[in-house]
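Lab notebook: predicted structure, single chain.

Context: the supervisor wants predicted structures on file for every construct in the current expression panel, including those that have not yet been purified. This is the next one on the list. No modifications to the sequence; it matches the entry in the shared construct table.
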Amino acid sequence: MTDQQLLQRILAKAGFHSTITKTCDLSGGCIHSVRKVTLSDDSSLVVKMNNAKYEHLFTEEAAGLDAINKTQTVLTPKPLGVFTIEDTAAIIMTSISTASVDDAAWSSFGKELAALHSHDVQNRFGFETDNHIGLTPQPNGWNDDWVEFNKQQRLGHQLNLTINRNLINQNQQRKVTAVIDRLDEFLPTNPKPSLLHGDLWSGNALPAIDDNGKMRIAVIDPACYIGDGWADIAMMKLFGGFPNCCFEAYENSVSDHVNIDARLAVYQLYHVLNHVNLFGRSYMGQAMNLADQVLS
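Prediction complete. Output recorded below exactly as produced.
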């Protein structure tokens, strides 16, 4: 079976019976194959595929996209279903048109992100399902205490993975443990519960044109959960790629500015430890620098 035949079968299972006239490879990170598919009726869809054993990742992604879409704040694809054909799993989504954008669009994104974080959600921390950050499991069991949630299901979870995989030495372990033991000094117990994208690095923020022809930033590949909105900002600042006007617009749209530097460093430490678990010890120096910054 050719790739196009496979795509046609997947679309047919989803109820799309128009003939595929064109396919285009899109960036899918290091995990999945992603194609933009144009149909004979001139409509376009995005199909992300992988081995059937990864179907749960697509189900998790669909749940996150649905959650973001329901807020009607940030532009993101709409999931149209998760399907399996033989040994291939796929998620089908609406297609978003990418384009060059100006600073005004980035400023608007900062405001839209603040609106996402201010949207009313459950008054506790976690998510309706566990999911993954990359290929790392991300536990999202509900907790009323943000500090305890981070101790158990964020930093503590990543630390345990580094120990089990023999990626951390005793001195480094003691330093991360010291951060975890003192988290109540760095994080609020009960920040405004916000729906987070969860993995908002620059590759997951696409300059785009919406259906009304407006320049906007679209977000893809979420690892959603409910937490402190500044956790999304921490990831955005970690590896760069976002203009200052975006951060300024966000900061001017939110009222909580307490102890932000320490909070950002804690949330960044989570992601860098995840990079240690995903890619190896080359990220451990960065993790230790963040731990030192928090503890200083």
